[in-house]
Q: What sequence folds into this?
């Protein structure tokens, strides 16, 4: 669909109440902007920097919360998996399965996701060239599933920093898939000495607008009612009012970009 | 001035005729877009990859051509210097002196440029962090000259490649200067085995729009009547019609960006 | 042990015969050099670039071959796991469990490896700063297992290239673990258009010697009787005679390095 | 000559007395190690980060000090130039002219240095691929001068950091020139907020040994009687006793490396 997609929610599921509040708000904002909305949250953060970090409610409880959100808000829900067996378990609830960036080359995981028949969103590894994502795309296609999205979320740039190469958007679109821009993970400062990734929330809207201007089919955002108290990725998560302002800006860009997107590719 | 600036012209001066043709075209297009126009061309490419490459007409002949353009087109002209003594020589003709990226830390050169009292445009070195440009800014300011622009032109990303970090635009604006985005040098593929830099012209408009969306105060473009035959930087130079289309796109972005630029900083 | 460790073998298990031939040769060479030898091969390459690449004999068959090698050659054997459940299955055969670089932050996998009580060798992710590996180390330690090695295998440097930062060796040694240098993966050229990583075998000995000189406790090598026909990583695998020459060089460096290693840290 | 070269001295000329003390010490140490010694110091640091940093005694006074050192110590002296006219002025005193890394593509400067007939040492730009240095080499050769050295001094790696790619040593040797490794500039942390580059002195010996092991024809070191009080590059300069220990280590590596250098190329 040419209508842009907004994938947004908290980084990780906390309480059902918080998730519903965030989802409710984002759904309304997305509608106001004329965009499709998909709720997003992880049930398990399997690769947190530190072993003592909060990981989430786990698969079973997490799916239950996601199912509630899906029904209450009447919107599609997305979550990420970390082991192949989880794909089948998630099938009944999720509308889209996401492959984390570090796992963007794990064949069994991608094939398991593809086999569900659900749309698969693969985050581009921080260590991957845009053109090399074609191999991950082919791994999904090998299952007969062609509903594929690729998500740009920044590329490693020296130690503890990421850079967004805007060329990756048209380059990945050339692979025949939808390209999403993950604005909040792209402003992470990975690692660091204190056991969790830091982030530069202040740059997320700017990068989202630039990427949208560069032709992204959708935007991925981590938002929270209170980022300072979020149990994961607080420093790069947006406040609800920031996400709302951003979507209104993207709406304006969307109205004018149609004619110049073609020049880019 | 809040009116965006378009610095554009051939990479290097060839004949007066070609320069005039390009300048005439770009001036009209800039006016149509409502932007300020400044003609740009080098009189000497002092750092060409290969010793056998065309370098330009030299200082004296070059200034003569620039002076003609300035008078014929009634527009400001910009060129770059490579040795301190050139600053004073150029003073009577140029409206803006540019410091090349490789030379962005050369104290004497920057001070000589500052001493002319003319606006100074320093290209950010491919090896510089945006925040470190403050030292180059201070070198100009030490001469009592506060008319300073910084130009983003890509950062080294592995060998033979550049990446544009859009965060650099707000970061350099925080230094209290105007920030220009050089769309055509940013798509260079530096070096290579054949003695000249190659380029990806196809990404220049996309990056220019994204940077404009990210708050750039102006755009720098190399344009040519026939890029395939340009004596320098052909592979990344834009055709006249591409530059025209791009300026019309930037005009539209400019109309909507005022309200979202503030969110970025 | 202050005796250097040589982990070497084919990238992936092919036939038992080939594995034995390589292991036999390397064991003798290691003994000649006065180094400890550990056989290495993967039973499953779970993250090959392309879905159509050879992946190996699988867990069950692979462990059988590894068990044969262990008994026939009377030497320790190492292999890598990709899902947590594999750790327990491998426990009876392996002497050391390896965590692949892309998976170097996956908490469950590292904890499962740690829980076996076997030494764990974590490859540093291509996207990780040396100091950030302390979090992966702590994940192993959380199981009460302190037999930990970290392996340097190159860091992403632009697209499709890796660079070895020799500072990472003393930096990771400061974490209180043994540091191995993987000479053959460090010369991979990741990705590329043709569905498999290319490599620069010619630089592997040079980097191994430099890393050994910089204090590496051991060296990891992929070797093959016929790299041109290897089913995985042929372009960066060493010929047997190259591996032999390299070990003789490392022996000489080992004899003189004791006194200068301390200066490094 | 197959005898390794040690280029060492203070970053910038301070007093004649300090320069002589450092040169005297390093000459004796180099002789003890069986290496050729060349004194090195800048007369003008033309690209200091901040405009308020100490730049040196200037061309005239600096050459006088260098001339004294040359005669008193009876050893060759090297310094770097920043503008073409300086080459001819330096000709009577210097034994080797150095081109700074940022200026490694400036055609006029390199040609002027070549025209003196003196050996020319070009530092590889932090933004250059090793193979692209062939163009700078050709610029010297265009003057009929074939006495050329290239110096590795680290490559930009993200912001405010450098990495040494040891592959550059054999790659640049393939251009038919001598390759020097600059151990102390390679551990600079360029830029930074406080107006001068910081550095990691502790890694300089380790990198020097690794580079020597990788085939470097010589080593370049900044040394000072009191690095904490050095007027330039103190944080990456070595204490005299550290430089002495390092040369003794390099001597040992030199004795064994002859046979393995060939394997590298």
A:
């Amino acid at each position: 669909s040419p209508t842009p997609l907004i994938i947004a929610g908290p980084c990780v599921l906390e309480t059902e109440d918080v998730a519903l509040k965030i989802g409710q708000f984002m759904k309304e904002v997305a509608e106001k902007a004329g965009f499709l909305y998909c709720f997003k949250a992880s049930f398990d953060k399997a690769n947190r920097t530190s072993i003592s970090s909060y990981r989430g409610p786990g698969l079973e409880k997490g799916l239950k919360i996601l199912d509630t959100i899906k029904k209450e808000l009447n919107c599609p829900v997305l979550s990420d998996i970390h082991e192949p067996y989880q794909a089948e378990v998630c099938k009944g609830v999720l509308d889209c399965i996401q492959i984390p960036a570090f796992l963007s080359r794990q064949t069994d995981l991608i094939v398991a996701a593809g086999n569900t028949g659900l749309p698969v969103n693969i985050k581009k590894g921080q260590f991957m060239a845009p053109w090399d994502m074609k191999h991950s795309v082919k791994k999904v296609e090998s299952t007969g599933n062609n509903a594929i999205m690729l998500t740009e979320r920044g590329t490693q740039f020296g130690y503890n920093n990421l850079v967004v190469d805007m060329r990756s958007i048209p380059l990945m679109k050339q692979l025949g898939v939808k390209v999403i821009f993950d604005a909040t993970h792209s402003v992470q400062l990975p690692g660091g000495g204190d056991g969790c990734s830091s982030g530069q929330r202040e740059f997320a809207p700017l990068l989202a607008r630039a990427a949208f201007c560069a032709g992204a089919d959708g935007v991925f955002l981590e938002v929270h009612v209170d980022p300072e108290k979020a149990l994961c990725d607080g420093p790069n998560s947006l406040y609800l009012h920031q996400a709302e302002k951003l979507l209104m800006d993207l709406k304006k860009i969307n109205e004018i970009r149609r004619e110049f997107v073609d020049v880019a590719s």
Observations:
- The first helix of chain B runs from residue 16 to 33.
- Chain B touches chain C at residues 157-159, 161 (CB under 8 Å).
- The two ends of chain B are 19 Å apart (CA to CA).
- The mean pLDDT of chain B is 94.
